[in-house]
Amino acid sequence: MKIEKICVVGAGTMGHGIAQVAAMHGYSVTMVDINQEIIDRAFKGIKFSLNKFAEKGKFDANKIDEVLGRIEGSTDLDAAKDASLIIESVPEDMRLKQEIFKKLDEICPPETIFASNTSALSITEMASVTNRKEKFIGMHWFNPPPIMRLIEIVKTIDTSEDTLNTIVELSKEFGKEVVVCKDSVGFITSRALQAFVTECIRILEEGVASAEDIDKAIKLGLNHPMGPFELLDFTNGIPVIFHAGEEMRKVYGERFTVPQMVRMLYYSGRHGRKSGRGFYDYTKE
Ligand code: NAD
After folding, report:
1. Ligand 1 pocket residue status of 90, Cβ below 6 Å
2. 217 C-alpha to ligand 1 centroid (Å)
3. Is pLDDT at 50 greater than 90 in this prediction?
């Protein structure tokens, strides 16, 4: 199937980056969010990123206006009705995502493909509220979308070959590498990351080593670009691992039990850099 127009629902951290990638590759894109302020911020973020690419010689500065001209913003979900692909990127909440897909199912033509950028939630459960299960797929991007190279594509037992091939080809056209996996909570990357960071937090909780030394060991000994606590603080990831851990424990059992420390950081609002504190203190920066 040929994708003509793309609609990204949710223009936050991930959504506006996804819109940018699609527009950079010649697609008309509509970003839908709940208010104009967020849409304006999304455009600002895209402009900033395009300028950075141009400064580094990775994008032609003369084409920035052309790319921006391909993107529209709207606060009305009806703006999605003429898109051939929807990429949903609203907060990680199954009820919210289902509510949006249910509405989209009513307003979009039957051939429109629905993709979710969820990090961990079941694509099959999300698709269950629509009448287009064969046109439903997971398209898991990484942060920031214009830079990260992978898209993890998640197919359900109902996803058609045509839908899968269309999304694989489109991802490649975007210059991304792809992996395809079967629908299962956490897919490949979020499940592996959850297990890894959970164990690092247990090492910290047991007093085996300090957060600084665990980060240093993982970076220098295991050659990760960031230590687990730096990564979680950088991505404001405490709420994510709190909710994802609860979900994964239901499916995979005790090994995904959320550590006490994550609960405390979550409920005290120490979610990472954006909130001033996470595992580390950023209030003096
Ligand atoms: P975010 O909070 O930055 O953005 C979500 C956006 O959705 C917000 O702008 C919000 O206003 C908007 N929104 C909420 N309700 C809406 C509605 N009814 N209609 C339209 N827009 C609505 O979140 P994010 O970090 O961009 O995450 C979005 C999704 O991407 C989540 O499912 C998350 O798990 C996934 N994800 C996040 C990352 C990451 O590193 N942040 C990486 C990969 C995948």
Report:
1. yes
2. 32
3. yes
Per residue in 123-149, pLDDT tens? 999 999 999 999 999 999 998 999 999
Please give the average per-residue pLDDT across 39-67, as a whole number: 97
CATH architecture of 189-275: Orthogonal Bundle (1.10)
Q: Is the dihedral of CA 51, 54, 55, 56 positive or negative?
A: positive
CATH homologous superfamily of 5-182 equals NAD(P)-binding Rossmann-like Domain (3.40.50.720)
Residue 285 clears pLDDT 90, i.e. is over it? no
- Delimit the domains of the chain by residue range: 5-182, 189-275
Q: Is 192 in the pocket of ligand 1 (CB under 6 A)?
A: no
pTM of the model: 0.94
